[in-house]
Protein 1
Amino acid sequence: MSEHDNQARAQFAEKTWDGLEPMIEDYAAAACAIAAEDFHQTLDYGPPSVERLEAILNRLSPAPDPLPAGESDWLSLLWGSYFGELLRHLHGGDWTMTIYPQTEFSVPTLQWESGSRVYPMMKVHRRLSLGASESLPAFYRMFCERLGAGPASRR
């Protein structure tokens, strides 16, 4: 754990937000800063950032040893927020809280008017827990194919 990572954790432990979107935007911005500071990677919400994020997660995945629960939760929220914001920047969508399929708990979800949903924090959690078989670049390619859209920015 780096000093920059520790500072972000402490800052977010004390912070409150007026809604889900501002919270996720703050976590995503922290992910960008930590990526630059600790991993020398530039995360800029563009499609090439998916590969850069994957490289960061490769370094964080302690396979075959599982991450401690608190560490896994923090990393899933931090990097999942960035991944979700990348998707939202490129493909639109709105943040909402929904029940994760086949569970009883609510998670941040990116949702489109078509009814399509993505659970970025859960995807990152699976990537950290299960390793490279849960590849974010492969998921992103499948996402783009299913959405029927290229990575055209809406901003």
Note: The helical segments are 3-14, 20-39, 48-60, 69-91, 120-130, 136-147.
Protein 2
Amino acid sequence: MESTGLVIDTGIFIEYLRKPEKSKTILASLPNDASLFVSAVTVYELMMGATNDQKKKDVETLLDGISIIRFR
């Protein structure tokens, strides 16, 4: 089966970061073979919302390995 490419928006990441049971989030339910993408705007929004060093680290960890669609 062919893998799927998905652009993930800010709300999906916020739900994952806030919810105690990560397995019950939309992000956790995405297919394992999906290629994930995030826009540069979403990265900016997530980093601006990270109010301390630990939250910034959490965002960086979450985005690790996800391709960023740059602003042109």
Note: The chain has one domain: 5-69.
Protein 3
Amino acid sequence: MSTIQIADQTFVAAPAAAVAAYVADRSRWARWWPDLVLSVREDRGPAGIRWSVGGALDGTMEVWLEPILDGVIFHYFVHAEPAAPLADPVADVRRRRIAGKRVSFGAKRILEDGRAAGEPAAVG
């Protein structure tokens, strides 16, 4: 078992292809995870993306997009070991969990574009 285990999920009312394109945009990765070096292991298109992770962590990371209703459940997983001893392992895991939430909530904010609760997702 990896030292760092993160699993999280968020509903995004947007088409899987749009969410996948948002996550696959490499220009965002350094902002989302500035201390990590990501290498695509598997681009699964509208199902998400899997990375090998280097830099501050050594392991894997994944965004899996599970179609449901008029959107997707945005699953975020990290399985890794720290590259160096952590001063505060609990705080580090919390920081990385929050980083994942920022990614999924960023997708919601941009792709739902002001959609009110209960309204259908935008098409496209």
Note: The radius of gyration is 15 Å.
